[in-house]
Amino acid sequence: MSGLEVRGLSGGYAAGHDVLRDVDFTAAPGEIVGILGPNGGGKTTLFRALLDELPVRRGELSLPGRPAYVPQTDQARLDFPVSAHDVALMGAFGRTPWFRRIARADREAADAALERVGLADRADTTFGALSGGQRQRVLIARALVQDAPLLLLDEPLSGVDGASAARIEAVFGELRAEGRTLLVATHDVRQAGEWDRVLCVHGRQIDFGPPAAVLSPETLRETYGDELIVLEGGGRAVGIGHHAHGH
Amino acid sequence: MLAWLTDPFASPIVVRALAEVLILALACGPLGVWVLLYRDAYAAESISHGMLPGLVLAALIGVPLVLGALAGVLLAAAGIALVAADRRLSGDVGVAVCVSALLGLGGMLALSADTPPRLQELLFGDLLGVGARDLLVAGALAGGVVVALAAGHRRLALVGFDRGSAAALGAAPARWELTLLAILAVTTVAAAGGLGNLLLVALVLAPAAAALTLTRRLLPALGLAVGFGALSGLGGLIASYHFEIAAGASVALCAVACAGFALLVARTG
Amino acid sequence: MPELAPYLQRAVLEIALLAVPAGLLGSWIVLRRLAFFTHAVGTVSFPALVLAGAWGIAPQLAALAAALGFGVAQERIGRGGRLAADAATGLILVGALALGVVLASDVFESGAQVDTLLFGSLIGLTDRDLWLTALVAVVVVVLDASLRRHWLAGGFEPGSSRALGLRPVLADRLLLMGIGAAAIVALDAVGALLVTVVLVVPAATVRLITDRLGALQAGATGVALAEGLAAVWLADALNVGAGPALAVIGGAVFAAVAAATAARARAVPA
Questions:
Q1: SS3 letters for C95-131?
Q2: Interchain CB contacts (distance < 8 Å): B and C
Q3: Do residues A181 and A62 touch, judged by C-beta distance below 8 A?
Q4: CA dist., res. C46 & res. C193, Å (int)
């Protein structure tokens, strides 16, 4: 698989109002890139641009294929009459033309994906009846079924219980080993520090590179502005997220 | 006892009415499920209420009602879309203005005409007046609706469940939301003759509401909705025959009763 | 100027009296997004009106019972459940219409009376109707004068009005009851289906021109009065109820104002 290349990306939702400016980075296959930044700072906009859903966009993008997108679970409808298996299977809808039935291989892929995220026994549970962490894992299973070389994950570990988080991080490791590229938007600076690269975004690209180089207090201050808290010891900092997660 | 159930269907008129209702249930049931999942109930009522001028004009001119229904629905949809786009008024105010203006226009055209068309048949349907040609038209339209919903099933599920990710998964949300509204429009046209523009929404929303209350899966909900629609049609026509009440209204009441019953069962069960 | 026939005098008086709630309450209906509720209160009264006609009781009384029942049902629906609120209300409305038709099959021989109940009539107004409308007009003025602060705060930011020392729940209930009462007295003139043409359309039209509450209420009252009088004239000429006539006139005026002001809004540089 090939990697991701972004050159001089700028754009927004209306002409003349750029929400994102001058984003420039690459990600090789098998790398996890953490994306840090305050709310409204451009993380989601970056994803929209990579998904080709940003109305106004300049710059060059080179993608290894159509990306899979894992949103936060409060975007999906909890009252929709679908089971965990149904949701996972949705990953295959895009590649199945409307007149074809879903292939048996795809159904098995959905089962396998649920297995990988540790929810094989909940395959038949209604999506809305699952816990927040379980729902997040189902959405990841959906992305697994999509079998994309590039995955965009929007705060997948936010407000998720410990067991789910461990499972999710294990899956990240597996995807990395398969040579896929992951972009993970997160508020957890400590977490980002454990990945291959970090991209700091606040309206524009602040910095990009290995965590050791990027995660300096100056860079974090510039990225988070007022939302920054520096814990004692000076060496560790946490960005504040304003998310309300309904479970 | 059995005679009580089968007596009404000795008459070919009632048999045709039953055929019409079953055909409509086939289309309205699944469509209603999608309308409820997409939270479009208000749109369904508004479009059906606002189509009255089209129906009245068709009756006045002497053109087949189906054409009037189509014109009426297009006009109503256009008007509603225009007001909904105006940001100065909040959502339901603009639509209420548009719909009541159209309803009033239809009423005025009908009530002031020299030879007034039978307004109540336009409002509440003429289920017992259904002829072979009407059945063919309804069948064709309903068939189209069923095929469209089947073909678009996965895309509609994608967009309905997770609008934000739908594009990434292969379905453009705006296009499919519009497609659903278009299918709703066709269903409205199909059902207007039999149930009338004020009552047809009962067959769209009520069986679907009952189905969604009783099942937690999409495909069973679609099937159950058809079942409840058929049941309402059957029960409605039997009641209409024995109690000598208007057929369309009887079917509508049965449908609403089904939904009410299902909601009660769900709440207590 | 020719002397107006008694029925016309009553129609003119009724429409003039209705201009008061149309202006005062109509503004709140538009600002607080209660148009659908207004339409619903009118519609659910239809079966009650059919029964009132059969049993010889005052239509306003029957309509009141229906409105109260609907109010209770609305609160139950609002408390959440499997069905979305607008779908549940829609089912109640279509059920009420179907019920009305079924009852009418037994009660009325001619279709004309159902038309009258749905679209209103110029000729059926009695003195009692006028007194009731006048009473409601007075009540509306009083309610508006004493509660406008609450209604404004409740609409602007529902959470904070309690902190400001106001009683939002009671005030909002009174608003809904006021709207219900206005709808009930408007029924005989404009019909169960078209209550919004008098209570919502004039205020919506003026809302396109102004943001300020005072101007909105005054303007809506004036527009309702002017349109109402024109509607009575038109309805009489065409031998229909006031409802359809007002709907057509009001709708046309609204469309014209919307088109004119949209053009003006575009011409002003952003």
A1: HHHHHHHHHHHHHCCCCHHHHHHHHCCCCCCCHHHHH
A2: 197
A3: no
A4: 8
Q: Does C193 sit within 8 Å of B199, measured CB to CB?
A: no
CB A16 within 8 A of CB A181: no
Q: Which residues of A fall within a CB distance of 8 Å from B158?
A: 90, 93
pLDDT in tens, A32-63: 999 998 887 888 899 999 998 888 889 999 99
Following CA atoms A140, A141, A146, A150 in sequence, which dihedral angle do they give, to the nearest 10 degrees?
A: 30
**Residue A201, helix vs strand vs coil:** strand
Whether residues A91 and B37 touch (CB distance < 8 A) is answered with no
The minimum CA-CA distance between B167 and chain A, rounded to whole Å, is: 8
Tell me the whole-structure pTM to 2 decimals: 0.90
Distance CA C120, CA C139 (A): 23
Distance CA C98, CA B249 (A): 5
Three-class DSSP category at B253: helix
The answer to whether the CB of A117 falls within 8 A of the CB of A139 is: no
According to DSSP, the residues that pair with A17 across neighbouring strands are A14
- Chain A residue closest in CA terms to B214: A81
Could you read off the pLDDT of A142-180 as tens digits, one per residue?
A: 999 999 999 999 999 988 888 889 999 999 999 999 999
| Confidence band of A236 (pLDDT split at 50, 70, 90) | low
Question: How far off is chain B from C89, nearest CA to CA, in Å?
Answer: 9
Q: Work out the minimum CA distance from A84 to partner chain B, whole angstroms.
A: 11
Average pLDDT over residues A228-243: 54
Q: Do A82 and B155 touch (CB under 8 A)?
A: no
Cβ-based contacts of A80 with chain B (< 8 Å) = 37, 160-161, 218
- Name every chain B residue with its beta carbon within 8 A of the beta carbon of A150: none
C94 to B201: CB separation less than 8 angstroms, yes or no? yes
What tokens were used for A24?
């420039």
Q: Tell me the Ramachandran region of residue B196: left when phi exceeds 0, alpha when psi lies from -120 to 50, beta otherwise.
A: left
Q: What is the CA C58 to chain-centroid distance, rounded?
A: 19
d(CA C169, CA A122): 43
Whether residue A66 and residue B168 make contact (CB cut-off 8 A), yes or no, is yes
Which is it for the CA torsion C29, C35, C36, C41, positive or negative?
A: positive
- Say whether B167 and A51 touch across the interface (CB within 8 A): yes
- Which residue intervals of B152-172 are DSSP H helices? 153-161, 163-169
Write the residue in B164, B169, B217 that is nearest to A93 by C-beta: B169
Inter-chain residue contact B259 with C194, CB threshold 8 Å: no
Q: Please compute, for residue B17, the number of CA atoms within 13 A of its CA located in the half-sphere on the CB side.
A: 29
Q: Of A18, A19, A27, A22, give the one whose Cα is nearest residue A9.
A: A22
CB spacing of C194 vs B103 below 8 angstroms: yes
Q: What backbone torsions phi and psi does residue A182 show, to the nearest 5 degrees?
A: -120, 130
**Distance of alpha carbon A176 from alpha carbon A188, whole angstroms:** 20
Instruction: Collect all residues from A whose CB is shorter than 8 A from any CB in B.
Output: 51-53, 66-71, 75-77, 80-83, 86-87, 90-91, 93-96, 98-99, 102, 126, 142, 146
Q: How far apart are the CA of C238 and the nearest CA of chain B, in angstroms?
A: 5
CA–CA separation, A235 and A243 (whole Å): 25
Instruction: Give the three-class secondary structure for A18.
Output: coil
Indicate yes or no: CB of C208 within 8 angstroms of CB of B88.
Answer: yes
Reported ipTM: 0.94
Q: Which tokens in the block code for residue A142?
A: 């959906």
| DSSP states along B29-52 | HHHHHHHHHTT-HHHHHHHHHHTH
**Cα–Cα distance between A155 and A54 in angstroms, integer?**
20
Closest CA to B120 of B195, B61, B30, B174: B195
